[in-house]
Amino acid sequence: MKLSEFGSRIVHVDLTAQSVERRPAPADWTRKYIGARGLGVRYLLEADPRVDPLSPENLLCFLNGPLSGSETSMSGRWACVTKSPLTGTVTDSHQGGWTAARLRWAGIDGLIFSGRADHPVYAFVEDGEVSLRDATPVWGMGVHETVSFFRERYGERNLSVCAIGGAGERLCRYAAWLNEDDRAFGRGGTGAVGGSKNLKAIVIRAGTKRSDVSDPAAWKAVRRRALDAIRDEKNITSPKKGGLSVYGTNVIMNVTNQIGALGTRNSQTTSFGDQAATISGEYVADHLLTGNPTCHACPVACKKQVRITEGPWAGLEMESVEYEPAWSLGANCGNADVASVAKMIDQCNDHGMDPIELGNALSVYMEATERGWVDGPGLAWGDTEAMVEMTEAIAARKGDGDLLAEGPAIVAARLGHPEIAMVAKGQAVPAYDPRGMKGMGLGYATSNRGACHLRGYVAAAELGVVPIDADPLEWRGKGELVKAFQDLHAFSDSLDLCKFSAFAEGADEYAEQYAVALGGEFKAEDVLLAGERIYNLERHYNNQAGFGADSDTLPARFTEEASTEAGSKGHVCELEPMLDEYYAARGWERGVVPAAKLAELSIP
Amino acid sequence: MGDGVLEVRFYATFRPLVGAASVELPLAADASVRDLLADILERWPALRPHLLDDAGGLGRRVLFLVDGRPVRYLEHGLDTRIGPGTPIDVFPAVAGGGSAKGRAPGPPAEC
Questions:
Q1: CB B100 to CB A232 under 8 A?
Q2: Measured between CB atoms, which of B68, B87, B99 is closest to A505?
Q3: A415 and A477 share a domain?
């Protein structure tokens, strides 16, 4: 497995013609856009950015990065890149687990699907070959049953299954792809694009392969330096000692609650008060935790296997009660029952849905119910049994579930009150209220895939745990800071390393691992330049897709209604002055990449 | 503010070191965060390497909240006065960690 050959094994699958063709990525593309996220956006630009996301003309790209599947720590990631049916923007989403590694070990760097099959199909990948096979027997199955089906057919050993569930088949706008039962390409509705193409699954069978590099000693040394940083006891990533490793991502719930950044009941307030404790990572660890699964090449093991022992969902075993869904289906819906949160996450994993978007669709519907804007019984805050039933209805597109499957922006608009949708570019906000963490608000507004915490995780600075002073309630200085985080993550998403690697590593570690893996010179400044180029490429795509000047917005609730709770009391999110700073740092004209900037970065 | 009792809440990896999620501590009139910190360290010396930096100041990785605000961003910092009803929450690093060498991940050193 020669790492320097990354990009030479891209497989193009025309689902309409049922043809499979292997064509290497242009060397210029892998040099400029690295892989995974960046390379996927470059491919996407080959189709018309104004394409209907659910039409055969849209491309659906599954791409590894140059380090995916190698021995590099936290490299068990791959990207799904397409035009989003939820937002109309470019979107990329990333999965952990073992699928990325197995794709690499099977001798493939990426799969690019176009067209639409005339019957359900799945792609089978083994020994460098890709074939399309009939998926009629599994069409209609949930993800869990689909995974079991293929494990029975091909054997469990060395097998990865990445599939859509019923939500994707029925074109829910926030449908997701899941692999190994529980790891999602969560955001942006990539699963609906799969459903629109009659593509049910990607099944990969491959045993472990070692990396082949030109300088094995240097390769070992650079990986050791990165691993030492990850293991450092002072870092949150430290195995079995750091907060991320011990409690998982949900260790953050109590923090955001106390500082007034935990949007509650559709972000009507900014803290869930004492009720946050029972949906927090500490509570899960004390009451439900049964195991600590991990991904390929990751010593952190942030996934938390849980078992529900009491109540209507007793006996449920699943992974993992992450912070984001614990918020979206918990505090955001006025729900303090962690068992019901686990149940709904598992429903999302089985039906193939994004729980962040689901929680926001539910919370919009709940607020509308509270305000008397829903005909019929609607949905009450924290009514867990009704939430679980509605989740089933959404996946099946039955009753009001058919409306909620469209996502919170369309739900709010159809109910006549678009102002209660907490979205940016049509995608729901995640779990950091911008009134309590203002840099995150700027990040939501300027994210190229719609509201997102992962395009630029400035929270690490605003919570004071990286060596950068960034008061969460101060707006000044956030423009340049958000840009820097966005550029760094654009690069790591293209390698493709787990975002959490940035809690221990920086541009230096990324650069030296990339340089040794592929050969040649590559420095920290090259990391940030490549990240900036990728971020601008995405924005250029969006500009062509119809997102022009002044498209970077937040709901007025965040910019005009002051927080009344906890540490952020009295604060709004000052988006406009932050945007001024941000556009100055980017060299953009009110959100549009000018021709001079494209030329400066050699785009496309 | 007179003598009283103050509730202090600990989270995540600090809880096993304290042995509780929340404790009540006596509080003198006109006590400051600095006084409270000294009392905490005296009662639970195992917290010392986690709360303090090499120079003996409050470590950058600690999120020490006073009424929901990181103490480092309060006007009077550790000299901020606290009373029996002041919410105090003490977290280890929970959202990140930063490089052991103190490098920022690329953003500017200050903002």
A1: yes
A2: B99
A3: no
